[in-house]
Specification:
This protein has about 170 residues and is α/β, with parallel strands linked by helices. The chain is built from five helices and six strands. It has a single domain, classed as Leucine Aminopeptidase, subunit E, domain 1.
Length: about 170
């Protein structure tokens, strides 16, 4: 099956896709940035369901309903905190994308949107994080899966520029 990968500028909480990814903290109970925005938009039922999940380890993923979001599901993943690159941050970040895609495919999800995981308060350099996101996603989509559309939803024009460049194969 042919899949499309694209980047767009916007608010991930407004996207009408099967699943959006939440760049969460390990408690899954909400926080700042994308995590807080998703929890606010989804409403209190999301935090209630997240309480039942028992948290999430970095590099793993768990799925909930989307509640008041246009997306039917939220896939929560915990990215690595950037500590200079010598603490397996790249492996953990790649695992975040891979586990989200695997979980989506296991649940027959066709469209999924990702934020730029770990590049906010967790401090991961955007160029490196973007290359990992795109390469992991492309490798996954080379195999059969239910996923036909992947959107990298960028919060800033500068992040969008990085994603578009990587997607076109330009050096960043």
């Amino acid at each position: 099956m042919n899949s499309t990968i694209r980047a767009q500028l916007g608010d991930i909480t407004h996207l009408d896709v099967d699943a959006i990814v939440n760049a969460a903290n390990s408690s899954l109970l909400g926080g700042g940035g994308v995590d807080g925005a998703i929890h606010r938009a989804a409403g209190p039922d999301l935090v209630h369901e997240c309480r039942l999940l028992g948290g999430c380890r970095p590099g793993e993923a768990k799925m909930t309903k989307g509640y008041r979001l246009p997306a039917r599901h939220v896939i929560h993943t915990v990215g690595p905190v950037w500590r200079g690159g010598a603490w397996q941050e790249a492996d953990v970040l790649s695992s975040c994308y891979l586990r989200c895609l695997e979980l989506a495919s296991e649940h027959s999800i066709h469209s999924i949107a990702f934020p730029s995981i770990s590049t906010g308060i967790f401090g991961y350099p955007i160029e490196s994080a973007c290359r990992i996101a795109v390469s992991t996603t492309r490798a996954f989509l080379a195999r059969p899966s239910s996923i036909v559309e992947v959107v990298f939803c960028c919060f800033s024009p500068s992040d969008l520029e990085v994603y578009e460049g990587v997607l076109r194969g330009l050096p960043t």
